[in-house]
Amino acid sequence: MNAKIFFPFVALGLIIVMVVYFLINPSYEKSLEAKYYYETGKYQKAYELANEAFSIDVYNRMASTIMAQSKTSMKYKKYVDQAKEYLREINTIASKQSISDADRAKIKLMSEIMVDSYVKLAPSVITDEALVKEAATYYKNFEQLLEKVNR
User: Among candidates 150, 76, 72, 73, which has minimal Cα distance to 111?
Assistant: First the structure.
């Protein structure tokens, strides 16, 4: 057989074997499923599946990456959820006729918690940009609120 034909067929055969292995290997199958959940914003489910995939095959870099990214995204999601809850409480306080010193202290404390929590977050290249921007917006809001309360 001619070498010009033989080597491309061997290379094509190896690629097909690698693709089939990737698709039927349970670790990579779970990794692909975890990637789907990560992309749809279900970070907890993505983390669990990536963790399972990683426990099956510790050399599965895809599972390791998805696990790390899901963990980071869950921190951002938790920050955004907590910010929304604190803002609801602050709006309830602000709707009162007069704001007492205790209420001012409560607003100050909530704002300080959110500002300090944001500093501890560390986005990566793969972290959802919309989630990072939303967290940054809440951070700026709490920073401004903290300035107003400290006056």
Answer: 150
